[in-house]
Amino acid sequence: MKALWARRNLVNVIAFTVVLAALGAVDIFRPFGLSFSALTGRVVTLDTMIRIGILTIVVVGLNLLMGYAGQVSLGQAGFYALGAYFSGILSTLATRHTILPGITGLWWWPWLMIVVSMILTGGFAYLVGKPILRLKGNYLAMATLGLGVIIHILAGQFPDITGGYDGLTGVPRLSIGSFTLWPMQRYYFLVWGAAIAVIVISLSLVDSRIGRALRAVHTSEVAAEASGVDAEQYKVQALVLSAIFASLAGSLYAHFQGAVSPSPFSFRASVELVVMAAVGGLASTWGAPFGVGLIYVVRDLLKSQLERLLNVRSGEYELIVYGIILVSIMIFMPEGLTASSVQFMQGRRRRHGNIEPQRVQSNGTVEDLGQ
Amino acid sequence: MPPILEVKNLRKEFGGLMAVFDVSFDVQPGEIVAIIGPNGAGKTTIFNLLSGVLPPTRGDIRFDGQSLIGLKPHVITGLGLARTFQSVQLFGNMTVMENVMVGCHQQATYGLIDAAFRLPHARREEHHIRERALAQLAHVGLESHAEEPALSLPFGRQRLLEIARALATVPHLLLLDEAGSGLNHSEKAELEQLIRVIRAGGVTVLLVEHDIPFVMSLADHIIVLDYGQKIAEGTPDQVQADERVIAAYLGQEA
Q1: A7 shares contact with chain B (CB less than 8 Å)
Q2: Does A212 contact B102 at a Cβ distance shorter than 8 Å?
Q3: In A109, A180, A213, B7, which residue has its Cα 20 to 30 A from A221's Cα atom?
Q4: Residues of B whose CB is below 8 A from A204
Q5: Is A220 part of the contact surface with chain B (CB cutoff 8 Å)?
Q6: Residue A371 above 50 pLDDT?
Q7: How far is A183 from chain B (nearest CA, A)?
């Protein structure tokens, strides 16, 4: 049973990697003169694919925290911002502040700073996580929301360091020796390589002692403690890990844009990350790339199609339809896209195989019978 | 032999309500001890105090000679005191097997980084955990249901699963909170047999029970609570003959 499960994970990872590598290769080799965006009917561009990859990394982390450990975070864009800003500031030390001009110009400096950003963001998450994670439910949501808002505001403040509301510019491209990971066709492979690594780490964690402890804390903290799980410790670990993933994504974003400004890290971004996690499916690692992808594609399609159909500049109309789609997904697929599609497939198979569906009894009803 | 559990002048107040009022008792190793009493007598509160879920207002609890006051529940579990819950608290998002594997949590030491990168050390320990969990499931007769979702089990089996999870923590003392409630006659007989087997394996058992006949045939020693106070203590025969116990259960008329 165990071996089978692990093999299924491996098969999924390999299939996912092959498909993404093939998609990325289209724009490099241009078979029959095709480009990536032509392949998708101009709905998805390579630029969008890279953004989906970056946010997948954040959402995989958020999923560990919310979906598995059951701790709500409405401030995840804050950790994402920290990664972007730490990387942006540290990799432009020489050009902006003439600090360490000899070293910061070397190719490995930005890579090292990505790691340093992850450590700094993780350390910050640890410090705030200890007090914040004592809160539960709505209170935790409010505290994390506040945290995200504070980081967003601070990012706009100190112009000498963060560039204020105009932001930082001149963030260098990443390179290995003299091989630059640019144009976009090359950067695509870095981003999706990182995303797949994060997915593999998440899959391994979920199916381990740590993942079981997180899932136990989610269902019943009292029962988890009674089974010997230090609930507080694992909640903090989940937060720190999700912050480290968000930081990595932020760094990749900074080197992709070449610039960092506060606007993409607002409260709205945090909410959108939660929506992406929920649409993909909480407690589902594979849900992350599909949740992010679906939201991106729906939003882009709405923007372009509504403008054409209604003959107006979109804006509000786009938001209305977007909202309706989200509400319908949550009503008809409360467990998210991936879980619902899997259940749908299983349901079909069961009907064809004439196997009685398993009756899952809830705790309450059975207990009532016993009284 | 020194007692495995010593409870001294234990008190718990909720606002003005005295839920547990200066209760003292000892549990000897290898015994099956039952705490009985009418609804609201403070039985479950005592369990919550023993397992560290609630801090006592006053008094001391010593387990294997060590005070448990101020320790977190998972630390107490690590010392060898495991418990089940009156309303079964299974991890509904996991399989039967995984529930017991959570109970084995402290039997392994590998951490986040070992797990994230599937280091050999983690794989080895994980293999070990699986074997232990499977052995515990076999102990309560659930090994054939290992890969089913925990909540798909019938209620009686869910109780057994919770006991298996508690046993997976390798306790010296097992607290069973109304383990018999909601079970039918044959399930109760099975449970009674299981409790005897657990005791034969060297685990001391302390139970809170509602069902008097069930306790009378099973327990070596009985503690009777009423309104948070201990009103009687002794062997089943002694307790049954006690006038205060009869009054507490039947009401104090005439």
Answers
A1: no
A2: yes
A3: B7
A4: 115-118
A5: yes
A6: no
A7: 31
Residues of A in contact with B122 (CB under 8 A): 208-209
Q: What is the average pLDDT across A283-289? A: 93
- Interface with chain B: mutation pick from A219, A227, A233, A359, highest number of B CBs within 10 Å: A227
Instruction: Please determine, for residue A315, whether its predicted confidence score (pLDDT) is greater than 70.
Output: no
Range A150-163 average pLDDT: 94
pLDDT tens digits, B100-114? 999 999 999 999 999
ipTM of the complex: 0.94
Q: Which residues of A touch B118 (CB under 8 A)?
A: 204
Closest A-chain CA to B98: A212
pLDDT band at A289, cuts 50/70/90?
very high
CB contact under 8 A, A363 and B92: yes
Task: Write down the domain spans for chain B.
Answer: 5-80+171-250
Q: What is the 3-state secondary structure (H, E, C) of chain A?
A: CHHHHHHHHHHHHHHHHHHHHHHHHHHHHCHHHCCHHHHCCCCCCHHHHHHHHHHHHHHHHHHHHHHHCCCCCCCHHHHHHHHHHHHHHHHCHHHHHCCCHHHHCCCHHHHHHHHHHHHHHHHHHHHHHHHHCCCCHHHHHHHHHHHHHHHHHHHHHCHHHHCCCCCEECCCCCEECCEECCCHHHHHHHHHHHHHHHHHHHHHHHCCHHHHHHHHHHHCHHHHHHCCCCHHHHHHHHHHHHHHHHHHHHHHHHHHHCEECCHHHCHHHHHHHHHHHHHHCCCCCCHHHHHHHHHHHHHHHHHHHHHHHHCCCCCHHHHHHHHHHHHHHHHHCCCHHHHHHHHHHHHHHHHHHCCCCCCCCCHHHHHHHHC
Residue range A31-84, pLDDT digits in tens? 888 888 888 877 888 999 999 999 999 999 999 999 999 999 999 999 999 999
CATH code of the region B5-80+171-250: 3.40.50.300
Q: How far is B121 from chain A (nearest CA, A)?
A: 12
Interface touch B72/A211, C-beta < 8 Å: no
Weakest-pLDDT range from A4-13, A52-61, A171-180, B112-121: A4-13
